[in-house]
Amino acid sequence: MAENDTSRTSRRAVLLAAGSAGAAVLAAACSGAAGTRGPAGQPPAPPSRPSAQGSTPACVLTPEAGAGPYYLDLDRVRSDITDGRDGVPLRLDLTVVRASAGCRPLAAATVDVWHADASGTYSTGKDTFLRGIQVTDGAGRCVFRTIVPGWYAGLAPHIHFKVRPDTRTETTSQFFFPEDLLLEVYARRPYARRRAPEHPNQRDDRYRATGGAMTLALSPDGDGYRAAHTVGIA
Fold first, then answer.
1. Consecutive H or E run containing 89
2. Count of other CB atoms within 10 angstroms of residue 103
3. Strand-by-strand arrangement of the 131-135 sheet
4. Quick one: 11-233 is in which CATH superfamily?
5. Structural domain boundaries in the chain
6. Whole-angstrom Cα distance, residue 183 to residue 197?
7. What is the pTM of this model?
8. CB neighbour list of residue 198: distance below 8 Å, 6 or more residues apart
9. Distance CA 9, CA 81 (A)
10. Per residue in 79-133, pLDDT tens?
11. Which residue, 213, 217, 230, is CA-closest to 64?
12. CB atoms within 10 A of CB 229
């Protein structure tokens, strides 16, 4: 399905359009026919790397977390969600699998991502920065291009995401970041306009509960970072 950064597409329409082809695409992915190309013709996402917080398992059931007060159901399908917001670039390569079905790649699932900007502010009202949806390809993959989020309200910096395999079910959770990397990022502008907390993660109970499984393993990518993560849903 062709997507661009300015289109506004209904999630329901996306699911209905993808549904008829989903079974055939998924069968091809499971047989190894798919997966030679990543989303939008890009190379396959690399495997997760160990970080300072430990390693990311290839396929585990993702712990769920609340959507928080800033979720907006905008149905905005796009890969680049920055909307011109300044910050350290982050490419997020996600693979969605059925953890309860032998880690089978999940095609035609919608993945919704939203998070704060460098100042810790979420878009509201008519603004749409740092929010967007992608639909997984035949190998269960999708890509978001965004920035490293800032901190706010005493919480560990995080990226919210919601996975909808169909129109009836969803899995909601959030990603965290290695604390040493956050401190490096927050020494750069525009983050450095505010004084960063000494321990941006450890003050958050949610991070202490699920950070071991949901901390992204990041690697340098140009002037920013890249992270690959496998999201396992039931």
1. strand 89-98
2. 16
3. 131-135, 110-114, 159-164, 171-175
4. Aromatic compound dioxygenase (2.60.130.10)
5. 11-233
6. 9
7. 0.77
8. none
9. 14
10. 999 999 999 999 999 999 999 899 999 999 999 999 999 999 999 988 999 999 9
11. 213
12. 19
